[in-house]
Amino acid sequence: MNRIDQLSAPLLVCWQLTRDCDLACLHCCTDSAPGKRLPDELDAAEAIRLAGDIAAQGVPYVMLCGGEPMVVPHFFALAETLGRAGVQLKIETNGQRFDAASARRLAALPIRSIQVSLDGDTQEVYERQRPGASLARAHAACRAAHDAGLPLEITFAPSRLNVDEAERVIERALALGAFRFNTGALMRIGTAARQWHRLEPSPSQYEGFRAMLDRQSRSLAGKLELCYEPFTVSDGLRASLAVPPATLLVLPNGWVKVAAALPQICADLRRQTLSQAWEAYRSAWRGDTVAGLVQGAVTDPLRHAQANTWQSLVVVPF
Amino acid sequence: MNESNVTIETAKSADQIKTEKAKPAQKPAWETPKLEDVSEQVMAQPYIRFT
C-alpha cells in the first residue's frame, strides 16, 4: 500500500493561482507572462470556497504560487482564509511587488516560507533571464520579509546566462537572512523548453555548479541550508515511483495534476470536493497507467516539455 | 523558524475516535497528515521545490 493511501488528506497543496505574471522570464516552467491569465481560472468566490475546503480537510501546508500569485486580486483573501484556519503557508514570488506592507500583513499568518527568486546577483545578469525586472526590488522584498520576521527562502534557476553568479547569490541569500537556498537543474518545461537553446547550461557549467553547491553546503552548514537534491525533474519522478508524493498540484482553473511534470489531470476542483480529488489522485497512483507515464518521462526527459499541455487521465471519471 | 522543525498534531475528533473503536476492521486506518512530514515531500519534488 502506498503511504498516500493511509492519509486522510494531502500533506501539501501546491496551488498555482494564475498564469498571469508581471514578468516574462525566459526560464519559466509554467508558461506565465503578462496577459497570460487563463480564461477559465477560478474566480474569487470559487477560490475562497476551495481554500475553505482545503482547511476543512486538514491539509497542513499550502504553497501559493503562479504565475505571480501577488497579481491575483484575491491573493490576500486566500492567504488569510487558509492561514487563519491554521494552514501553514509558503508564498512563491518574484518580489517585484512584495513590499513592507505586504510583509506586515502576511506576518500575522502562519508563514513557513516566503520564497523569492534571485536569478542573478547583478542587474545585468538578473534582467537577462528576467527581462524588465528590477533586482533592487527583489532585494527589497527579501529585506521586507526578513524585517517582518518572515522566514525567507531564495530560489535560483540556473541557466547558461546566470550560473556563473550562483555563488554570489548564495552569499547574498546569507546576507539577506535567508534560511534556505533552493536550486536544481533547469527544467525543460514551458517557456524554458522553447528557450532551451539559449538557456541550457553546458556540461562543464553544471559540473562546476554542483561542485560549488557541494562545497558551499559543507561550508555553510548550520547557517544556510542548500537544497539541490534531487537535482533533476527525472530524479524526482523516479523517486515518486517508489513513494508517490502526498501532494496535489492545483492549476489555476482548479484542475489537479497526477504529477507536476506530467500533463495528465485526475480531478477538477471546480466540480469536485478536495476529498474527491484526493481519492481520484490516490486511485490514479494505484493503477499501472500512471506508473507507465512516469517511467516514460524518466527515460525520455523531452516529454517534460508537454507538462503544460493538460489532458484528462481517464482512470477515474470526473 | 524553518521548514524542518515545525510540527502540528491535529487532535482526533470524537467522531473519529468513536468510529475507530466501533469498526476497526471495516474502516481504513486514516492517518492525519502532520506538518513534520511536509519538508521531505516538498524538497523531493524539483518542480514543486523551485517553480
Written overview of the protein:
The complex is a heterodimer of chains A (318) and B (51). Chain A is an alpha/beta fold. Chain A has helices at 44-56, 75-84, 100-106, 123-129, 135-147, 166-175, 191-194, 196-199, 203-219, 233-242, 274-286, 288-299, and strands at residues 12-16, 61-65, 88-93, 111-117, 152-155, 180-182, 225-227, 247-250, 255-257, 264-268, 311-312. An eleven-stranded mixed β-sheet of chain A has the order 7-6-5-4-3-2-1-8-9-10-11, with helices on one face. Chain A is globular. The model of chain A has no long low-confidence stretch (mean pLDDT 94). By secondary structure, chain B is an all-alpha fold. Helix content of chain B is 37%, strand content 0%. Chain B contains three helices and no strands. Chain B starts with 13 loop residues before the first helix and ends with a helix. Chain A binds chain B through residues 5-12, 14, 16, 29-30, 58-61, 63, 65, 86, 88, 90, 92, 112-113, 151, 155-157, 179-180, 182-185, 187, 189, 225, 227, 229-233, 235-236, 239-240, 243, 245-247, 249, 260-261, 307, and chain B through 1-4, 6, 8, 10, 28-35, 37-38, 41-51.
The percentage helix of chain B is: 25-40%
SSE ordering of chain A? EHEHEHEHHEHEHHHEHEEEHHE
Query: Helix tally of chain A?
Result: 12
Spatial extent as radius of gyration of chain A: 19 Å
Whole-number count of domains of chain A: 1
Which pair of chains has the greatest number of interface residues, and how are they split between the two chains?
Answer: A-B, 55 and 28 residues
Average pLDDT of chain A works out at 94
- Return Rg of chain B in Å: 16 Å
Helix content of chain A: 25-40%
